[in-house]
Design goal:
- By secondary structure, the protein is an alpha+beta fold.
- Helix content is 35%, strand content 22%.
- The strands form 5 sheets. A 6-stranded mixed sheet has the order 1-2-6-3-7-17. A 4-stranded antiparallel sheet has the order 11-13-9-14. Strands 4-5-18 form a 3-stranded antiparallel sheet.
- Strand 1 and strand 2 form a beta hairpin.
- The mean pLDDT is 95.
- Bound molecules: zinc ion (ZN).
- Zinc ion (ZN) binds next to loops.
Length: 443
């Protein structure tokens, strides 16, 4: 079984070194480099490999072990190959070195989600090499562009190459951090995700000479107040069913549990939690508004007459674009009519049911690795490629397995953060998980 971990570690190191950094521009990413690597990994009998490029340099790979029974349920393991940018100043090691130090693989993508992509590829290869002939098909897809709306990856495949990625169920990132509790080990499974509402606010002013700023209509000064109001705005606390199930299942102790489920006491409870968990707990129970990019001004001696401010807003289940526009107006108060909303991209929150055969199979298989484990349905506060498949009516979960070396807290802080790394034992667990799940669920 060392072999599994070694093979997955090797693939992960290569994917990290390929540095498929997606900065949000259409020609970033370069995921074809990693598709080439995965094509070699999957070059074994019994696996059909296809590649699809929606844009040059941004290939997607789809590998398939064809099932013998077209009516049997099939499973798509969905990994992405791109990563978000880094600021190397905050890193202890080279973020694209892929070094293994003291049992950890270091680098951007180590937990998001090159670890899982590598383990899915190696598990698919191992299954085929061992002569695995399932009733239902096993599909593995390595997709580009997850970190920028899936435009060149999962969204494109779901729209243009539906047959290639057709499956009864999907598993993608993330989940599976073992969390101890009085009633055994809890393993979060992502069953829902928040929606997103990305918009640009334009604030206009009047240009003038910056040597005489008295009573000028400086768009940047107005924008500063807009940002301040958005930062101070407190959207209402929402305790929904997924949050209730998650908190209850974590078995945190009566007092903490009650505060996390009480809309009035939650704010005080957040102050006492470790920062990683506090951020997740806050985001799971609130619409969040983060000002992220501002463009203003042209020259030091000119009063700016125009500011464009980008907001990353994450929505709760059931919130529409109109709900969010009303919330922005509410936050801005009398400044609302100084602001024009230029463009808004709204993606509704999505969710999958948990009364499915795949849910049961995941629980059975997970208990081979953690004998006292139970699964906990969870909402992720970010966006994943699962949403494109949920919208097609395909139940989609986020899962994987981590060792006890990586807590939920560590994981939350490393995700898009500094010093991202994963232990080799976690790579072994995920690789074995996919093999065991395919044998359980598809045969
Ligand atoms: Zn990811």
């Amino acid at each position: 079984m060392r072999d599994d971990a070694d093979a997955t570690t090797d693939v992960l190191q290569t994917l990290i070194r390929n540095a498929c950094v997606n900065d949000g521009t259409d020609d970033s990413g370069g995921e074809s480099r990693s598709v080439d690597v995965l094509r070699d990994v999957l070059d074994v009998r019994g696996v059909d490999v296809q590649t699809f490029a929606a844009r040059p340099g941004r290939d997607n790979l789809v590998a398939r072990i064809e099932g013998s029974d077209p009516s049997a349920p099939s499973l798509l393991l969905l990994g992405h190959t791109d990563v978000v940018p880094v600021n190397p100043d905050g890193w202890t090691r080279d973020p694209f070195g892929g070094e293994v130090v003291d049992g950890y693989v270091w680098g951007r993508g180590a937990v998001d989600m090159l670890n899982l992509t590598a383990s899915m590829a190696v598990a698919t290869r191992n299954l085929a090499s061992s002569g695995f002939r399932p009733r239902g098909s096993l599909v593995f897809a390595a997709v580009a562009g997850e970190e920028a709306l899936g435009t060149w990856g999962a969204a494109w495949l779901a729209e243009h190459e539906r047959d290639a990625v057709e499956a009864s169920y999907v598993i993608t990132e993330s989940g599976g951090n073992p969390t101890p509790s009085r009633s055994g080990t809890k393993l979060p499974v992502i069953t829902a995700e928040k929606g997103s509402h990305w918009c640009t606010l334009r604030i206009d002013g009047t240009p003038g000479h910056a040597s005489q700023p008295f009573r000028t209509d400086n768009a940047l000064v107005t924008a500063a107040e807009v940002v301040r109001r958005l930062a101070e705005f407190r959207p209402e606390t929402t305790i929904d069913e997924t949050w209730q199930r998650f908190v209850t299942a974590l078995d945190l102790g009566d007092d903490l549990r009650d505060s996390l489920l009480d809309p009035v006491r939650l704010a005080a409870a957040l102050d006492d939690l470790p920062l990683g968990f506090a951020r997740v707990a806050h985001a799971c129970t609130h619409t969040t508004i983060a000002p992220t990019v501002m463009h203003a001004g042209t020259k030091t001696n000119v009063i700016p007459d125009r500011v464009d401010l980008q907001l990353d807003i994450r929505t709760l289940p059931g919130q529409s674009s109109a709900d969010i526009s009303a919330m922005i107006d509410d936050a801005l108060g009398d400044l609302a009519d100084r602001v024009t909303v230029l463009a808004a991209a709204h993606d509704d929150s999505t969710a999958s049911p948990i009364d499915t055969p795949l849910w049961d199979a995941l629980g059975r298989v997970a208990r081979r690795f953690y004998a006292d484990a139970s699964l906990v349905p969870t909402m992720t506060v970010g966006a994943t490629d699962a949403r494109f498949f949920r919208r097609l009516g395909v139940p989609s979960y986020g899962f994987g397995l981590f060792s006890r070396a990586i807590s939920y807290e560590d994981y939350a802080l490393m995700f898009h953060g500094d010093d991202e790394r994963v232990d080799v034992e976690s790579l072994r667990l995920s690789t074995e998980l996919w093999g065991a799940l395919a044998r359980d669920f598809l045969t």
